[in-house]
Amino acid sequence: MNSNSKISLSVNSETGLLKSVVLGIPNDIGPVPNIEECFDPSSIYHVENNSYPSEIDISKEMTDFLELLNKYNVEVLRPENILNLNQVFARDLGFVIQDTFLISNIIENRSSEIPAIDHILAQISTEKVLKINSKAKIEGGDVTIFKDHVFIGASNPTDFNKYKVARTNFEAVDFIKNNFPNKKVMGFELFKSDNYKNENTLHLDCCFQPVSNDLAIIAPDSFKNKSDVVYLEELIGKSNLFYISKDEKNNMYSNIFSISPNVVISDSRFSRLNSWLQQKDILVEDINYSEISKMGGLFRCSTLPLIRE
After folding, report:
1. Residue 11 in domain
2. Which domain holds residue 69?
3. Which helix (H) or strand (E) element contains residue 243?
4. Beta bridge partners of 138
5. What are the pLDDT digits (tens) for 14-48?
6. Contact 9, 307 (CB under 8 A)
7. Which CATH number do you get for residue 230?
8. Is residue 1 in a domain?
């Protein structure tokens, strides 16, 4: 794409045929962080247990992911490299709803990642780039599109002020409601923990993920309000939901990534899920992403779709 052409954004689902995506980069992530430098409990756990992933392992896993995207002729854009900065998880920097790119208000620890996509934002018409107001805090991993709905993982004021892992507030839900009046925008509260990775749900895509046109993966134990689970069950249909256990949720089962309604990139460890997807006539491209998962994210976290048909 030459620098003068504009990107015509279009994202109306999590599963439409993927044409263009921003994929994070594994370069120059810096030394293993100290506990104080970690801002999610999964990273803390692996730092404490000397199992934090190496840059070599991260690079191999991301290269395998890139090769799969190339196989399906997806245009892959990358952030600019910033030294000593973890830039694997591009999802949180922003997100596209319909034809508009929304720049996230992410936590201060990660704000230096946003300038790395300035060269991509420069290829989008300025009227199609929306800066969220400063009181509305949000990360892209908390935003999921399903048909006429936009679902947002959000925290009430008490949780938002209490937990470092609470990244999205209800001011952001209201902001998106106001800017996309044709969408049914709903905020779902999730269980949070700064210290215990198995008690924390960092983002909505860690417990809920649409697949194909009418299916979804759900971890019901992650939702604080059971009425939200009931709503999703009634909307999507229990028989169309793949229910994951708490252990499977902790292994990021829901953080797969759709290339199209019938092609999904999943982790080779997810045998129960992958079998279910295959039974639903979905082609599963499975690769190992286990080292990257130690940092609290997986395939969806690494990607920021710009165009889906």
Report:
1. no
2. 18-308
3. strand 241-243
4. 105
5. 999 999 999 999 999 888 888 888 778 788 888 88
6. yes
7. 3.75.10.10
8. no
Residue with tokens 């900065």: 85
- 112-150 pLDDT, tens digit each: 899 999 999 999 999 999 999 899 999 999 999 999 999
Structural domain count, the chain = 1
Contact 286, 270 (CB under 8 A): yes
CB 189 within 8 A of CB 154: yes
| 3-state DSSP assignment of residue 18 | strand
- Whether pTM > 0.85 for this model: the answer is yes
Structure tokens given for 206: 């860690």
Query: Alpha carbon of 244 to those of 94, 193, 209, 282: distances in Å?
Result: 27, 19, 11, 18
Rounded Cα distance between 305 and 144, Å, is 12
Which residue stretches of the chain have pLDDT < 50?
none
Site of tokens 């997807």? 277
Q: What is the pLDDT of residue 289?
A: 97
Structure-token match 């596209």, residue found: 96
- The pLDDT of residue 4: 59
Nearest 10 degrees: Cα torsion 91, 97, 99, 105: -60
What's the token pair of residue 208?
């809920």
All residues at 6 or more sequence positions from 151 whose CB lies less than 8 Å from its CB, including other chains: 143, 144, 145, 186, 188, 204, 208
Q: What is residue 117's predicted lDDT score, i.e. its pLDDT?
A: 97
Q: What is the pLDDT of residue 51?
A: 86
- Please indicate, yes or no, if residue 158 is contained in any of the structural domains: yes
Residue with structure tokens 């290269």?
Answer: 63
